[in-house]
Amino acid sequence: MLPAHLAARLLEQRRAEQSAEFARQLPLYADDTPFPPEAEQDGETPRPLPDWATNY
Asked: Which residue spans within the chain are E strands per DSSP?
């Protein structure tokens, strides 16, 4: 059985390695999608965005 200080050090090292691996797998960029999605050009007027601060 490991002493507590060695076990803590190994656990910290393992967490750092897992965190680095997780960060390595993240995408470097994400495709920006327009919000709201552009309406089709069929003559409809676009809806205004909701006012989340007052209309909820």
From this structure: none
Cβ atoms of 16 and 8 closer than 8 Å? no
What is the model's pTM? Answer: 0.45
Nearby residues of 36 by Cβ (< 8 Å), 6 or more positions away = 46, 47, 49
Widest pairwise Cα distance in the chain: 74
Arithmetic mean of pLDDT, 19-34: 77
pLDDT at 27: 75
- Spatial distance between the Cα atoms of 25 and 15, rounded to a whole number of angstroms: 15
